């Protein structure tokens, strides 16, 4: 005998539609020259992570020894970066989208002041991801810890 009162299993949520909408939003953002900021959960119960894609540059010799916005002394040999919004102390994985190389840095300064860029890396961080020669590369930033903006 079949129980007609039993509930049907809940349909699983499809992420395909969300991915398609995100792809369309990304294409529109690229066409308009905007930076798309994406927040996503990596699995059930996973904390939100924050990522951003755009162009990063590096700074160093002219700023070495000066105070950063966080109050610490800038050292171009440390693995650090400037970002306009991320909290000081946030650890961020920066991936050079041209060669796939990445580095983990700590946010300790504000900038860049060029609106076409999303971050400025120290010389040491730039060296690790192979961008010293070019000066500016497309990159992905992923916050590993620290609050999102």
Briefly, what is this?
With 149 residues, this protein is of the alpha+beta class. The protein has helices at 16-32, 123-128; strands spanning 37-41, 48-58, 80-82, 91-96, 102-109, 117-121, 136-145.
Keywords:
single chain; 149 residues; alpha+beta; Barwin-like endoglucanases; six-stranded mixed barrel; 15% helix
SSE arrangement:
Elements: H1 16-32, E1 37-41, E2 48-58, E3 80-82, E4 91-96, E5 102-109, E6 117-121, H2 123-128, E7 136-145
Parallel strand pairs: 2-6, 3-5
Antiparallel strand pairs: 1-2, 2-7, 3-6, 4-5, 4-7
Q: Which percent bin holds the helix content?
A: 10-25%
- Separation of termini? 57 Å
| Beta-strand residue fraction | 25-35%
Tell me the radius of gyration: 20 Å
Describe the protein's architecture and organization:
The chain is α+β, with helices and mostly antiparallel strands and 149 residues long. It has a single domain (36-145), classed as RlpA-like domain (Barwin-like endoglucanases), CATH 2.40.40. Helices cover 15% and strands 32% of the residues. It is built from two helices and seven strands, in the order H-E-E-E-E-E-E-H-E. The protein has helices at 16-32, 123-128; strands at 37-41, 48-58, 80-82, 91-96, 102-109, 117-121, 136-145. The chain has a six-stranded mixed beta barrel. A hairpin with a 6-residue loop joins strand 1 (37-41) and strand 2 (48-58). The longest helix is centred in the first third of the chain and has 17 residues, at 16-32. Residues 1-16 and 38-47 have low confidence and may be disordered.
